[in-house]
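FORM 12-B: Structure-to-Sequence Request
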């Protein structure tokens, strides 16, 4: 159906296909509010936004609108670990317990830091039932993770650490740097790059945060992986998403408590421009405009496969490097082999393509149902590479 949408921002004429695809997403996929941005060799060639920041369509999506990007946050979190490794402050092959001694409990003394990043640690969920407010308590969740046994023998398989990824990697970053993950990310990456991306935001941000709108229930016959994961309350799959049971309630993820906490696996807030700027630096060797995030050794670790195949948590196949999701059939971040990044639940995506020197960001408030790569960023990606 035709949709009358006013697109704002800038687009290099060479990338007019991206603008066309962005407009078409509103008509074809019921987009409410969204933004997309592309950099090529550090230069911004696309920076577009349109639609509304709320379900009632009373607030316009503005240039400075930011939104919860869900698991796209994991890529930002992983950058912090890679930056410390690049500086020689963190050895990714060393045991986690070297930096976080309490983590050695329950037979976890030999688990390397790398296993936290490539989803092989077996720590994909918290075993102890959590109360709603404990979701926002860093000390509580990290204490429980340090105390518990892995769900599988570490290193023998991989399974998506949907929320625990951020607490696990974040606690290592905190122990090494002396700063919380959100503070470290702000001081070392976002602020130097001028990127409007945050992990934990104060109430002063609320006026420009878009409201998350949950996807409608799947139609009869459509696959619902969340229902599949919820079948067995004793499983790691269930605990990964439903401990506490309110974790993914719409009222939780639009709340001040959610926005204010640091949940680096899921609650980053950003705009597309920020994601493209950050990943654009990584796409050109880790540096842009004289600002270095980290160097070529870490870039290679970001695109080198570490885990591939059936996932022990998600009822899907997945493919990971150290901290990043990699392309696989049906989830292609462009045609080039070294692309890496991270999607977020409902559709958001940030990625770097070092071969084409492309940085990409897409954010939205209307969530979709695709578990990995949503059709909306996929259409934008196709348009980018058709324009290069």
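FORM 12-B RESPONSE
SEQUENCE OUT:
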């Amino acid at each position: 159906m035709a949709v009358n949408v006013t697109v704002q921002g800038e687009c290099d004429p060479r990338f007019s296909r991206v603008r066309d695809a962005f407009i078409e997403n509103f008509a074809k996929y019921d987009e409410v509010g969204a933004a997309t941005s592309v950099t090529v060799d550090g230069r911004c060639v696309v920076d577009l936004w349109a639609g509304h920041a709320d379900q009632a369509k009373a607030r316009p999506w503005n240039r400075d609108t930011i939104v919860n990007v869900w698991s796209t946050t994991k890529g930002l979190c992983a950058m912090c670990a890679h930056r410390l490794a690049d500086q020689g402050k963190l050895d990714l092959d060393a045991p986690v317990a070297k930096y976080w001694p309490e983590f050695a409990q329950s037979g976890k003394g030999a688990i390397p830091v790398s296993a936290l990043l490539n989803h092989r640690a077996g720590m994909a969920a918290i075993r102890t039932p959590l109360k709603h407010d404990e979701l926002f308590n860093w000390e509580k969740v990290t204490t429980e993770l340090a105390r518990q046994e892995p769900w599988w023998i570490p290193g023998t398989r991989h399974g998506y650490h949907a929320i625990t990824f951020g607490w696990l990697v974040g606690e290592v970053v905190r122990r090494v740097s002396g700063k919380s993950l959100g503070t470290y990310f702000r001081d070392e990456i976002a602020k130097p790059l001028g990127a409007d991306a945050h992990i934990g935001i104060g109430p002063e941000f609320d006026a420009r945060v878009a409201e998350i709108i949950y996807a409608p229930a799947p139609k009869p016959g459509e696959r619902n992986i969340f229902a599949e994961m919820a079948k067995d309350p004793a499983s790691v799959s269930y605990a990964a998403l439903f401990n506490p049971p309110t974790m993914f309630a719409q009222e939780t993820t639009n709340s001040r408590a959610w926005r204010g906490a640091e949940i680096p696996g899921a609650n980053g807030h950003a705009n597309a421009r920020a994601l493209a700027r950050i990943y654009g630096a990584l796409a050109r060797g880790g540096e842009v405009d004289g600002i270095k995030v980290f160097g070529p050794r870490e870039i290679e670790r970001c695109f080198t496969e570490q885990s591939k195949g059936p996932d022990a948590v998600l009822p899907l196949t997945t493919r990971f490097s150290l901290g990043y999701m990699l392309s696989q059939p049906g989830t292609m971040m462009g045609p080039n082999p070294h692309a890496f990044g991270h999607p977020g639940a409902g559709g958001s995506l940030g990625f770097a393509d070092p071969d084409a020197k492309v940085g990409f960001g897409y954010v939205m408030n209307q969530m979709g149902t695709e578990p990995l790569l949503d059709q909306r960023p996929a259409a934008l990606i196709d348009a980018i590479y058709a324009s290069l």
